Amino acid sequence: MTQLTRQDCERLDQDDALAAVRQEFDLPENTIYLNGNSLGAMPKKALDQARQTVINEWGQDLIKSWNLHDWFSLPQRLGDQLAPLIGADAGEVVVTDSTGINLFKVLSAALMSQQQAHPQRKKIVMEGSNFPTDNYTAQGLIKLLGDQHEIVFAEGEEIVEVIDDSVAVVCLTQVHYKTGRILDMQAITEKTHACGALSIWDLCHSAGAMPVELNACRVDFAVGCTYKYLNGGPGSPAFIFTAKRHQGKALQPLTGWWGHAAPFAFERDYTPADNISQMLSGTQPIVSLAMTAVGLDISVRADMQLVRQKSQQLGDLFIRLLAERCGDCQFRVVSPLDAAQRGSQVAIAHEHGYAIMQAMIARGVIGDFRAPDILRVGFSALYVSYTDVYDAVDILRDIMDNDIWQQPEYNRRHAVT
Amino acid sequence: MTQLTRQDCERLDQDDALAAVRQEFDLPENTIYLNGNSLGAMPKKALDQARQTVINEWGQDLIKSWNLHDWFSLPQRLGDQLAPLIGADAGEVVVTDSTGINLFKVLSAALMSQQQAHPQRKKIVMEGSNFPTDNYTAQGLIKLLGDQHEIVFAEGEEIVEVIDDSVAVVCLTQVHYKTGRILDMQAITEKTHACGALSIWDLCHSAGAMPVELNACRVDFAVGCTYKYLNGGPGSPAFIFTAKRHQGKALQPLTGWWGHAAPFAFERDYTPADNISQMLSGTQPIVSLAMTAVGLDISVRADMQLVRQKSQQLGDLFIRLLAERCGDCQFRVVSPLDAAQRGSQVAIAHEHGYAIMQAMIARGVIGDFRAPDILRVGFSALYVSYTDVYDAVDILRDIMDNDIWQQPEYNRRHAVT
């Protein structure tokens, strides 16, 4: 097999059905942005949306905007916009709060439901190596509930084995934040239900990166963020999915006025809305919330099958170029080599991973580092090109050839990595 | 006593030490905005801040902004900026999440502390007529904890009477959202502590409107919003105060990675930060969060004693003009007549309150209506002038004279009022 050339990659870009989507984003010059798995790029229309919300709505219409611009229903309207991307129906998703807060809501709702159905069940199955905020959330809830529950930690393929009829809830992230490994949502959810447990999926690394089929898999609850592959802006509000069959029954405990059956009746006592609105709590940050519409709009117009296909090809291309051009550099691919089992990112390990990533960032190739030795590069198919991948590996080769990563400035640790 | 004239009000404006602050806000033309108690006006620099965060930070520096622009410490930096406005010290306040979510955190923290100190105490004192989301939050938490706790509802002056040594927590809003009545923070907190209970204050209608002395009153916890008198923008993130003596001890249960002692160690298990950061949960909406700095900056530069004094005078002026010019119209002042007992708003009742307020809004005088019959007008001293108040009453007189409020279009109810 002959080695791939830059011309080969240019040809792939010419044939790329998604190539035009890149024009909807404003990417900085001299930058190859391979970190959309952490913070998505800025759509060109983002500032227009901010200007609209700040100047025309807040500034001009002030309090009247709650009616005139229907700020109050933004969580539901954005949820309906997002729903098809994750295999949900209208009325099953709201955009609100943060992923962790939302996980607290659905985990509480699931545990309280199980308290009725199977009061003796106290186990929650989670993955120990998951992005830790999910585990922290469960630990905080368990402590609040008086330490009656227990987390059963399992990893990867072990997970399906530990699900049995002593389990109340199975709470997993579909795509692993570090390795990009995909869990089998369908098989795990089937086993979960066969054992009488409820399923919660965290879609932070899958929503917008690949087709997700929540209802086809009969998932009970899901959460996820909008600032990675959905390009909603830094820390943009997260989402909650609750399957129709649980609405009005499985209730969440962060009971603010936005989740009340009649929020503007200002009644003293809480009456839950009998629909997805019950998953809301308090007043939302309208500027950040409204901006998520811009990124969502781009994703909704893209064909998620094509997005998935291209991201797999970008990942395969990176892995192949790494082998061809940096085969002597002691990199080890940590992500699954089979694209079908891999999300939209590739993790590689190297003893000097931190310094190498700093050197890459200094050269304009933006990925990130996760301790102890992992370099992550994400391939957001909406704006990353095949030549981006070629050029990134080219720069990596140069860094390794010239020992640039040994320079002291690349070995100083930042507070945030 | 002769009736006040517009010239009198013009003279008051000329002598107003805060008059220049109005220039820092962009107010719509032909509008008298008397609803800063619900949504503060837009500072002129708001869009600049949005542009900076969206274009220069998100767009250009992308993921590097977490370090370069220190997004991660925004909740603490904004909290330190806000602290002097509420009588708190640096390191005691963070800006994050919504008021309701934050109330859930501190109420949980307080109840869990009391579970150690006084395990038999299960009562929470609240005000039944409070803005209901506070009550809903307590009700949601109580249900989650298995209905072991009980809310003792009291009103106004009764409150101090129901605090005894069976009470775990006293959770009140300092300024009543509807009537503007101020509760005596010092006396109630003293009684609370004398009885061995913990105090939580909601400052939604006081922060930025008057000097608040949390530490001088030995308050334990507080929450509040930044989008009313602090002009942070629609739904801008709220704040939490935790007195130094409780930090590292009274822990909140929405345990996300931002509250971890070492967030970037990505450890599997939660270890709480031993400072105010433990009150954080997950990733924040950075655009909305960063924008709060603009409004805070204006308030921090203003003298809160002057702000308070002017807002009292504006309220007194409104009440006097209403008596002088609309004395025959059956309005009833619901707020305390004594300015010392009244926050920065005046509530008046009228049988046809809804239609009258709609007619006022149609004429550019923006206040709001609260069922069953209350018209609220807020006097944000940073940008409301004495002539604004004169002109507002002038328009109200005209509406009443011409029965404009009887027209059918003012009697149609909006979903959001």
Overview of this protein structure:
Chain A is an alpha/beta fold. Chain A folds into two domains: 6-30 and 303-410, Aspartate Aminotransferase, domain 1; 50-301, 3-Layer(aba) Sandwich (Aspartate Aminotransferase, domain 2), CATH 3.40.640.10. Chain A is built from twelve helices and 15 strands. The first copy, chain A, has helices at residues 6-14, 46-61, 65-68, 74-82, 99-117, 132-144, 159-162, 185-194, 286-301, 304-326, 353-362, 386-401, and strands at residues 25-26, 32-33, 42-43, 93-95, 123-127, 150-154, 167-173, 198-202, 221-224, 239-242, 332-333, 345-349, 365-366, 368-370, 374-378. In chain A, the strands form four sheets. Chain A has a seven-stranded mixed β-sheet with strand order 4-10-9-8-7-5-6, with helices on both faces. Chain A has a four-stranded antiparallel β-sheet with strand order 11-12-15-14. In chain A, helix 1 packs antiparallel against helix 12 (386-401). Chain A is globular, with a radius of gyration of 22 Å. Chains A and B meet through helix 2, helix 3, helix 5, helix 6 and helix 9 of A and helix 2, helix 3, helix 5, helix 6 and helix 9 of B.
How many domains is the backbone of chain A divided into?
Answer: 2
Which secondary-structure class do the elements of chain A indicate?
Answer: alpha/beta
**Binned strand content of chain A:** 5-15%
Which sequence of strands runs across the widest sheet of chain A? 4-10-9-8-7-5-6
Average pLDDT score of chain A: 96
* CATH class category of the largest domain in chain A: Alpha Beta
EC number (chains A, B): 3.7.1.3
Family (chains A, B): Belongs to the kynureninase family.
InterPro entries (chains A, B): Kynureninase, PyrdxlP-dep_Trfase, PyrdxlP-dep_Trfase_major, PyrdxlP-dep_Trfase_small
Catalytic activity (chains A, B): 3-hydroxy-L-kynurenine + H2O = 3-hydroxyanthranilate + L-alanine + H(+); L-kynurenine + H2O = anthranilate + L-alanine + H(+)
